[in-house]
Amino acid sequence: MRLSFSNRIALYYMGTTALLTMLVFFFVYMVVHQSVYRHLDSELTAEANELNGDVVLLNDEIVFTNPYEWNEKEHCQVEVNPTFRQVSDEYGQIVRRTPNLGGDSLNVYMHRKTRFFINTTLSKQPVRQLQSPVFDSLNELKGYVEIAVPLEGTLVVMRNLRGVLILAFPIVLVLLFFTTSLIARRSIHPVYRLTETAEKISRENLNERIPLPLHEDELYTLTQTINQLLERLEDAVIREKQFTSDASHELRTPLSILKGTLEVMLRKNREPEYYIEKIGSSLSEVNRMSDLVDKLLLLARYEGDEAPVHLSNVGVQDLLEGVLARFETRFAENNLRLALDFTPEIVLQTDRFMVEQIVENLITNAIKYSPANSKISISLKKQGKIASLTIADEGPGIPEHALDGIFDRFYRVDESRNSFIEGNGLGLALVRRFCGLLDIRPEVKSETGKGTRFTLYFTEENSV
Questions:
Q1: Which ranges of 370-426 would DSSP assign to H, the alpha helix?
Q2: What DSSP designation does 77 have?
Q3: pLDDT at site 212
Q4: Within a 10 A sphere around the Cβ of 81, how many other Cβ atoms?
Q5: What three-state secondary structure class fits 25?
Q6: What CA–CA distance (Å, rounded) separates 121 from 365?
Q7: 114, 127 in Cβ contact below 8 A?
């Protein structure tokens, strides 16, 4: 049988409470039992003390100082609240007994030298009996005083109490189960609402969130966790859509160019020089697509909160020299001068690959937008624990209104769109992403007609 979550809670709670209730009922029963018998024993003790004071020894014979006490009403009646008295000698022979004993006698327990209580019977009826020894002046046992009271009323009370507790136990458990089950269903009702809301959320409406409960309890935490999961899923889907949209949009143009070039080449025979020229332009488009795909994949790989970051001690000057060595040919082709100002022995705790990608993209931009015979300046400084890397060119600059958008994907400043400068607008998007992952603060300053300056500030956490 498969129980619901609320019924399981109720069942577990009922089982635990059943044990506790059983202990409580047992404790109540024992308290009442002890209280009743303590009351009876106190009455018997008072009677025994009174009777012991009435019994004296003369010439080793038991004599009663107040014989009229034996004829009091409580010692003569049997029906209503009787008290039975009996005195016996050391051999168990009855010396005197109250009239209400009739032809019966109380049990005598020989050789018992201490006062004690016992449950016994009188005429097959239960009684509570006290037996107290009688000693002479030499402390020798000379007889016994026996006093008893009926126990039937007490036993009836205890029997009724026991019956009530036994009957109440399953009733309490059944009521407890249904009450707990009802409370549990009401308590986990937010879970049902949470489930219903979660079932309605699909790929098309991942922006929806589950309403948070009023009370900040475990369900509140669970709802928060699910909402955070939905945010991560939404972010992943958005990035997937963004990648698909970006790739299809940016690859359409070079593919169209390749297709048109190949169709023209197939229409009729051409001179070898023509084919060489068109194949060269086609290869250029293929290289552009390859670079675009590489950067899109790189962006996709490093998106999200769990992007892989591998920290190590990186010597910045060695890194810069290695990157610049790869650009020697391009500097020579454009007749560009390079001005370097390095502070040696700067070591950062960072990801070498990401820093290389940042520097490569910034230097690539500086080369693309620098006119021939101009200068590109690269400086590496450290003040206190803050290191800074600056790459400046003497290109056309960036208009002030465009500075906020240059780190967006596929963003191209209007002036560069109208020029023949190649690019896909992903380089600075990569720079921003890697800077965010490495806690590097990028800063851009540009003046139209005078050039652009990119500065990277490495925080204290990056310094070694």
A1: 414-417
A2: -
A3: 78
A4: 10
A5: helix
A6: 114
A7: no
**Domains located in the chain, CATH noted:** 5-159 (3.30.450), 218-301 (1.10.287.130), 312-462 (3.30.565.10)
The single-letter code of the amino acid at 157 is V
- Residue numbers of the chain with a pLDDT score lower than 50: 415-420
Burial status of residue 272 (CB atoms within 10 A of its CB: 0-12, 13-18, 19 or more): exposed
And the tokens for 110?
A: 């020989």
| The two structure tokens encoding residue 290 | 């390859």
Total length of the chain: 464
Task: Report residue 422 as tokens.
Answer: 């190649």
150 has which bridge partners? 127
DSSP string, 123-162: TTEEEEEEEEEEE-TT--EEEEEEEEEE-HHHHHHHHHHH
Determine whether 366 is exposed, middle or buried from the number of CB atoms within 10 Å of its CB (0-12, 13-18, 19+).
buried
DSSP 251-307: HHHHHHHHHHHHHHHHHS---HHHHHHHHHHHHHHHHHHHHHHHHHHHHHHT-STT-
Give the angle 385-306-302 at the CA atoms, nearest 5°.
80
Angle, helix 189-200 to helix 218-267, in steps of 10 degrees: 10
What is the bridge-based pairing of β-strands 337-342 and 375-383?
Answer: parallel
Classify the phi-psi angles of 280: left when phi > 0, otherwise alpha if psi is within -120 to 50, otherwise beta. alpha
Neighbours of 143 (CB within 10 A): 23
Angstrom distances, CA of residue 170 to CA of 18, 157, 182, 398 = 9, 21, 18, 85
DSSP output for 420-437: -----S-HHHHHHHHHHH
Residue 6 contacts residue 181 (beta carbons within 8 Å): yes
Can you give the pTM of this predicted structure? 0.47
Helix (H, G, I), strand (E, B) or coil at 373: coil
Q: Which pair of tokens denotes residue 386?
A: 């803050």
First to last CA, the chain: 64
Among residues 348, 303, 381, the alpha carbon closest in space to that of 462 is found at 348
Residue 34 has a CB neighbour count (10 Å cut-off) of 10
Q: What is the C-alpha to C-alpha distance for residues 446 and 295, in angstroms, rounded to an integer?
A: 25
For residues 355 and 310, is the Cβ–Cβ distance under 8 A?
no
Number of neighbours of residue 249 by Cβ within 10 angstroms? 10
pLDDT confidence of residue 109:
92
Distance CA 429, CA 295 (A): 9
Residue in this structure with the two tokens 């025979």, named with its chain if needed: 269
What is the distance between the alpha carbons of residues 302 and 353, in angstroms, rounded to a whole number?
Answer: 12
Q: Are 130 and 115 in contact (CB under 8 A)?
A: yes
3-state secondary structure 180-216: HHHHHHHHCHHHHHHHHHHHHCCHHHCCCCCCCCCCC
